[in-house]
Amino acid sequence: MDDALWKWIGTPEAKKIATSAQEKAWKALWKRFPRADRSKFEIYANFSKNHTATTEVFFKGSSGVSTSVFGSDRRYWSPQMETALGLDDVNGFPYQLSPLKTKKLLPIPAVNFTEPAPSIKKIFASLVKIYVTPDSFFTVKFRQIFEQTRLEHNSVAESKVWSGGPNMKYWPQQLNFAVFCAPQDCGISREVFDSGVELPEQIRAFYRFHVYFTVRRILFQMGGIQSVSALPGDPTFNPSGNNYDVASYKRICAEFGIAPTSDFCYTGGKNHGLGNVYIGVTGHGATKTGTAWPGGYYKFSDEGGRAADGNLLYFMKPDDVPQYDWFAPNESAGLTKAGLARINESIKAFIYCILGAQVNVRSSIIGEGGRAKEAQTEFLTLMESAISQPDLAKSVQRYQLAVDEVKVRLNLAVASMA
């Protein structure tokens, strides 16, 4: 370090820059580890010749050895460091499924658009296991909703509306919002409903049901008392102008502590999420180009593009990427208050659908016989009914009735410490 830089480091300006950088580093630590004990960590600021500061966070070990948080391999962290980061189990129970007491807002999207995001659709596109006991299950096919998210933009007017800010009339943004609330804002990460945390398969399967059920229920609740929302396949479904009730959307935002002005638009990929530019080529039809928009050579007809001039932009369309994947978290630090309430709803629905299906059909739901298949079909019918049941009192009554009629002892613990 040269003398000039050394002298500058002692100035008030340098101290201000260092303090700001350290606070940003702590926020980054908290964002990754919301349960972290700040008193157990030190944040060092290092200056370069151009007077910019870089930081590194260290855990202060009892042996006097400091370990970098972001610059070390998690596999070699000590139990003390994991405890300081809030990653230790809670009385033997996974910390991911214990209550999260922080009230700070979670990042939107959950995964940065520049990073890869594992697929959610693959989990629900195939047969889903529904466990009745820890060892016995049947499989069902849920209605597909993770589709029709590639919007085609045909004019500069519509493209500017789409890119002008949050706009929940677009189906992809509605789906992204529901996916954010069900896993991320509930505190249920991929490591819980997909893989990562060591859980009995019966419990993990329940959390898959919870994610799908909650996504569907939020989408339904966005329709308000008039049920104006629609899903892919419904006659009134419109991916570029799907109806929703603004008041209901704001109520759901308030439940999860989300600002109604939050942006659930996918802005990754080409042209800030609008997608690739397609032009017309004689004999080849619409052809994808790598040109930028706006400001590129090609233009929509309503901004002056003409086929005769060779600069007509036919439409813009993104690559086939599952946009909602970026709104579900890979990791969790615990269950939120709103999440605990929603999980309770899912438990009642789950038990009601399994027990109610067997009561209605008068048959076990496990097996390959005709009566068992009828019960499994009835499970899906009851689940669709539960999704569209806005009255919580009736939901509890149906759950209690199903339990009373079958007279069974329930054995399902999904978050015992919560």
Secondary structure: number of strands: 8
* Tally of helical runs: 12
Shape: flat
Span between N and C termini? 52 Å
Describe it:
The longest helix has 25 residues, at 337-361. Helix content is 37%, strand content 10%. The protein has 418 residues and is α+β, with helices and mostly antiparallel strands. The strands form 3 sheets. It has a 3-stranded antiparallel sheet. The protein has a 3-stranded antiparallel sheet with strand order 7-6-8, with no helix packed on it. A two-stranded antiparallel sheet has the order 4-5. The chain has helices at 3-9, 12-32, 79-84, 121-125, 156-163, 171-184, 190-193, 201-221, 246-256, 337-361, 370-387, 392-406, and strands spanning 41-47, 53-60, 66-68, 128-131, 137-140, 276-281, 285-289, 313-317.
Topology:
Elements: H1 3-9, H2 12-32, E1 41-47, E2 53-60, E3 66-68, H3 79-84, H4 121-125, E4 128-131, E5 137-140, H5 156-163, H6 171-184, H7 190-193, H8 201-221, H9 246-256, E6 276-281, E7 285-289, E8 313-317, H10 337-361, H11 370-387, H12 392-406
Antiparallel strand pairs: 1-2, 2-3, 4-5, 6-7, 6-8
Short description:
With 418 residues, this protein is an alpha+beta fold.
Features:
single chain, alpha+beta, 12 helices, 8 strands, 3-stranded antiparallel beta sheet, 418 residues
